[in-house]
Amino acid sequence: MSHWNLDPDRCFSPLLSQSSLARTIYEEIKDLPLVCPHGHVPPSLLANPDATLGSPAELFVIPDHYIFRMLYSQGIKLESLGVPSQDGTQVETDGRKIWQLFADNFYLFRATPTGLWIKDELINVFGISEKLTEESAQRIYDELEEKLAQPEFSPRALFKRFNIEVLTTTDAAHDTLSDHASMHEEGFTSVRPTFRPDAVVNLDAPNWRQNIDKLSEVSGIEVKDYKSFIVALEQRRTFFKELGATATDHAALTAETKPLSDAEAETIFAKALSGKSETSDASRFTAHMLSQMARMSTEDGLVMQLHVGSRRNHNAQIFNTFGLDKGADIPVATEWTRSLEPLLNSYGNDERFKLILFTLDETTYSRELAPLAGHYPALRLGPPWWFFDSVKGMERYFDAVVETAGIYNLAGFNDDTRAFASIPARHDVWRRVCSNWLAGETLKGFIDDEEDAAEMARELAYGLAKKAYNL
Amino acid sequence: MSHWNLDPDRCFSPLLSQSSLARTIYEEIKDLPLVCPHGHVPPSLLANPDATLGSPAELFVIPDHYIFRMLYSQGIKLESLGVPSQDGTQVETDGRKIWQLFADNFYLFRATPTGLWIKDELINVFGISEKLTEESAQRIYDELEEKLAQPEFSPRALFKRFNIEVLTTTDAAHDTLSDHASMHEEGFTSVRPTFRPDAVVNLDAPNWRQNIDKLSEVSGIEVKDYKSFIVALEQRRTFFKELGATATDHAALTAETKPLSDAEAETIFAKALSGKSETSDASRFTAHMLSQMARMSTEDGLVMQLHVGSRRNHNAQIFNTFGLDKGADIPVATEWTRSLEPLLNSYGNDERFKLILFTLDETTYSRELAPLAGHYPALRLGPPWWFFDSVKGMERYFDAVVETAGIYNLAGFNDDTRAFASIPARHDVWRRVCSNWLAGETLKGFIDDEEDAAEMARELAYGLAKKAYNL
Amino acid sequence: MSHWNLDPDRCFSPLLSQSSLARTIYEEIKDLPLVCPHGHVPPSLLANPDATLGSPAELFVIPDHYIFRMLYSQGIKLESLGVPSQDGTQVETDGRKIWQLFADNFYLFRATPTGLWIKDELINVFGISEKLTEESAQRIYDELEEKLAQPEFSPRALFKRFNIEVLTTTDAAHDTLSDHASMHEEGFTSVRPTFRPDAVVNLDAPNWRQNIDKLSEVSGIEVKDYKSFIVALEQRRTFFKELGATATDHAALTAETKPLSDAEAETIFAKALSGKSETSDASRFTAHMLSQMARMSTEDGLVMQLHVGSRRNHNAQIFNTFGLDKGADIPVATEWTRSLEPLLNSYGNDERFKLILFTLDETTYSRELAPLAGHYPALRLGPPWWFFDSVKGMERYFDAVVETAGIYNLAGFNDDTRAFASIPARHDVWRRVCSNWLAGETLKGFIDDEEDAAEMARELAYGLAKKAYNL
Question: In A346, B52, C154, C185, which residue has its Cα 20 to 30 A from A244's Cα atom?
Fold first, then answer.
């Protein structure tokens, strides 16, 4: 039985002088509370004190598109991984078989951040001590299953053990926020909602019409035209704020923010309501609504987040059988400079406004985003997102943005995950990469001394996220 | 006389702990047989047992656009380098003069992969022991000339000495494959053809009409319309397979793969046959034919390669005087995500299909190619191509793709060369860079141990290429 | 009082073997004279022997958009930094208050090149020995103020102390060059003008009509149509040459170079003169004029520089209040391959022509610029520009271009600055990064030995700039 170790100096440079300074810096920040201002943990997991994390397969494989997309890329069917179908297709239900298949192929994750997170989670959260292989799979399943049944592995117990200071979820504009309301009532205010209106703002969102109806229902405002739509959204923002929200979140294929005239907005919205949208309506309306959301943010103070550049559901066959979020969202090149110009010219100099940007196009870090964030007072840069929430992704991000924007125009870290138990592993990678990067900068003479470096590390690990999100 | 040395630890990190582990890994793979699944060695060189490599100028300078483009960029005329003209322009014929000019300017290749390959080839293949300079040029010419006349420097002898397990050439769809047929007959099956139909598929290819006639001739199928064109191509694919081909290859300016209806394809092809193509016909037809080629691959099992993004013959003056492949092909930005969507939606989930992608736009590695390859089972990523077949090109490639796609969605290495004698040098660079990169990943804690790293190195150096190309 | 130190090995690798070789190389080049072939120092500063550098706030803060954009991005008003307004808005005039605000926020520049330059300038040019902080601000102000009043801190004295061999300024085509004429007369020929006709060539330049009138005035040629416009420009180029110019400079949003017919050029120019330009006229005319400028360069031998990709004055509110060059110019993605094709096909093979390219889109280094420069004899690549004139910007540049273009197709270094006293700090960063990069290449076996590396360093630090600019 081979012992499985996490390198205590993982993510640090192999150069001793650098890893040694990195460790010194890391020691100062590794135990800071976790600030999680953007993520996708289901609020029910924390609202219900009796919630559990489920079986090992339910925890690690079935819901995690980082995992099953890689297995799928090597010819393993999603059916055999137990991913629920939407069209009645039979899928595997035996958690042990699913886990075995995962373990058989865990070698695919060598040298990937997903591999590192899983290993960290198995060792540090669950105390697994042998390497996950074809051979060890069932023993590890036994051990995980046993632990997952214990109260100290309930989401609430882990929330405390993980030292999470605040965690925000992502919630549709038409959500009732019942879980949040119950936590709020209970006084468990470390969990907060985030207002994400994509499903009603993007006219081509799946089930848009039904979502509008739900919006009418939850807001008590009948959405019958553009004006009532805007009023309903404003009502929901207020409601989200009352339950602790400090931010909104918006996803778009492009960063276009050109506003429409009120009349144009009215017309397009009316066409959509009557099911007669034309091809370009949705993209023009989304651009307009981003501008409207910025306007609302200047009024209600909610920080605006913008995630741009994912071509969703690229694989029609997978989408038809399994639905959204199945590892088939593929980035496209993104233009920020011209696209954000309308919005920034209206609100970019406004002291009441804060906009945090996320990209899937790394070429825009140094070319567009850092110059924009190094000028506009309203802008902050979100951390490397999705495929780039990785060791090298972070290193490229720091290398590309800090020379132009400094570190004080950054928004710290987001774990952006639905995998609750992986949160500490993700923050730990960020903290390690920050420490190592700052150590390098110090040794190369770009930071005056260790004291400055440690102060910067505390900001990156903790302070900047709180400031950026008004937490 | 200065002794000329190859650093035994070249391409490794200057950090001792990393270079030492890199060396350990490299020792395990450096003598593995060479798998060369994509290249441009003329088959005649190996079909004819009496073939020779020619004079030093004919071997190193005259046919190699990597060499003469750099000399040309510094004001040295192609005429003076003996590059054959197509319009009757007189060019230098004295090999010694050409060689001297090359040696005088060999310093231009400092810190380039071309410089490293040449040095490796001179030292390791030809046993040259003094540095190539203005002063040593003629002595080295003497020594090379003497060696090149010896039987142990014939292409076949070198093929054996290089330990090449399999080498594929690139052959037009309308080629008779007579050299391949003769090797096949002889039982020399380590050399295989690859089906490259660009010259008949791209309607704007030089001499397209004549190529179609040749296609009719070699296939025995009179290409008189789109239908017979498709039948002729299918016939040729079968013929290539019979002579050992396992793959096809396709070059395109963009990655567009949108299919036409049969009627549209008929119409465009008919216009082309009658010399009346319109401007956009060629690009639309190429996109369509890529889709057709994918369809054929699902049926006959030939692996499909796609090389995208080279704007060919950028310099009209050079093209008019010297023709194709004269160092004036310049990359353009490439879009993969939307462009491949039609093809991947038809064939990307098909177990019978394999598609290997090559790009000249490094920004697409992490943004588009790795996410695509990390999802679609049919996709594999080819190694860094052309300008990026270099130490830093490889390092950027690994850094950009592995975190998202792992190493098992890669297709190993291609030398992609017409310079037969440079093959070992090129594979050696790849093997060294792999070893060094894996050493770094291991030391940073992203690979569990040396054993895993060595296994990954064997895949990258040997196994993945064989699997990707069904060899 | 904390002592403030510059790391003697700043910009070098923390790896001892590399920094040690880097230092050896650096020692050979650090005292070479400074060649400054492109910059924005006001010629009056050097033409007038009694000129001074002004107060500390006037020297370091008020005119430097690198400084105040970062402060602005964190919510500090340009008014409070004394940046002069154009619309009568009151701004701070107390230099000590401005300086204090700068010092309070100097931590924002940690790990930025601007921070490094300022620190170097304060320590090495002005002998400041304590760290710039909120607390030390006024003491340092005193010391700077005292020094700036001394004759050895006059621009001319510093010019000598900095060991500047040649410095070129950037001057409008309609400039009288009176300062240059007076220096020329005096025999102070180390300062030379550069011909920059953007303000008359770009039809949408602010005050274009007035600039044309000035052009008529200074050239003595009444610009009344396209033909006289061309003649006037040719006259000015001759005049600039007589005062020592060896180069022209051109800024454009895109790299388009498609020429117009004479008739089209006539028509567009006539429309502009009568104030009736249409939307696309300016961009088409700029493209045409770039081609014309190349033609003139083949005739008069002035080296052509092209700076592409800055979307100027992105922030309308800042532009309206404070005008041009206020830190709100943001890069956009740039296409070179197709855009330069017309110009390069006309002049790219011409022995009389030299074109130096500058980009704000780093993705084009390896994809387009290095392949172009590694082929066309007329092309040279300018150093990393603006946001990329930084340690990591330079490292990425070398890593991206040298493997394809070698170092001999580069144009050495430009400081490109209006901050005269920062010139040595900027050249020093380049020289250090070159030394460290060459040390790495040598240790990895890509350069034969230290001697070759030192020769390359001398070229990069001194020789290539002189050759590229015919200095």
Answer: A346
Q: Does B116 touch chain C (CB under 8 A)?
A: yes
Q: In terms of residue numbers, what domain contains B83?
A: 53-153
Determine which of A257, A404, A438, A449 to mutate to test the interface with C (most C C-beta atoms within 10 Å): A404
CATH code where residue C292 lies = 3.20.20.140
Whether residue B180 sits in one domain with residue B87: no
Locate the chain A residue with the closest alpha carbon to C361: A367
Residue B414 confidence (pLDDT): 97
Of C115, C134, C150, the last residue of a domain is C150
Per-residue pLDDT tens digits for A68-105: 999 999 999 999 999 999 999 999 999 999 999 999 99
**pLDDT surpasses 60 at A295:** yes
Encode pLDDT of A257-293 as tens digits.
999 999 999 999 999 999 999 989 999 999 999 999 9
Q: Name the closest residue on chain C to residue A333, using Cα atoms.
A: C333
Helices (H), A194-277: 198-201, 208-219, 226-242, 262-273
Is B366 near chain A, with CB under 8 Å? yes
Sign of CA dihedral A36, A41, A47, A50: negative
Strand partners, C310: C331
In a domain? residue C177: yes
Please, which pLDDT band fits residue C3 given cuts at 50, 70 and 90?
A: confident
A166 in contact with C, Cβ within 8 Å: no
- Secondary structure of residue C330 in the 3-state scheme: strand
User: Is a pLDDT exceeding 60 seen at residue C1?
Assistant: no
Q: Say if C280 is an interface residue toward chain A (CB within 8 Å).
A: no
Residue B214: inside a domain, yes or no? yes
Question: Position of tokens 């848009």?
Answer: A208
The verdict on C132 and C175 lying in the same domain is no
pLDDT band for C53, please (50, 70, 90 cuts). Answer: very high
Nearest to C72 among A345, A367, A377 (CB): A377
Measured between CB atoms, which of C4, C73, C113 is closest to A374? C73
Residue A1 has pLDDT above 60, yes or no: no
- The full DSSP string for B211-231 is HHHHHHHHHTS---SHHHHHH
User: Is the CB of residue A352 less than 8 Å away from at least one CB of chain C?
Assistant: no
Q: What pLDDT, on a 0 to 100 scale, did the predictor assign at position B302?
A: 98
**Residue A163 sits in the same domain as residue A61:** no
Q: Tell how strand A247-252 and strand C379-381 pair up.
A: unpaired
Single pTM value for the model: 0.98
Query: Nearest to residue A3, comparing CAs of A129, A111, A114?
Result: A129
- Predicted pLDDT at B189: 96
Where is the domain boundary, A153, A179, A213? Answer: A153
**Is residue C257 located within the same domain as residue C119?**
no
Domain co-membership, C30 together with C75: no
How many domains, chain B? 2
Identity of residue B101: L
* B10/C446 Cβ within 8 A: yes
In degrees and rounded to multiples of 5, residue C339 shows phi and psi of -65, -40
The domain spanning residue A129 has which CATH number? Answer: 1.10.2020.10
Q: Rounded CA gap, B54 and A82, in Å? A: 62
Give domain status of residue C87, yes or no: yes
Query: Do residues A380 and A373 make contact, with C-beta atoms less than 8 angstroms apart?
Result: yes
Interval C133-174: pLDDT, tens: 999 999 999 999 999 999 999 999 999 999 999 999 999 999
Give per-residue pLDDT as tens, A360-386: 999 999 999 999 999 999 999 999 999
A388 touches B at CB < 8 Å: yes
SS (H, E, C) A18-58: HHHHHHHHHHHHCCCCEEECCCCCCHHHHHCCCCCCCCHHH
In a domain, A309, yes or no: yes
Who among C4, C69, C332 is closest to A375 (CB)?
C69
Q: Which residues pair with A192 in a beta bridge?
A: A168
Distance (Å) of CA B156 to CA A456, A471, B163, B171, B212: 62, 72, 11, 20, 33
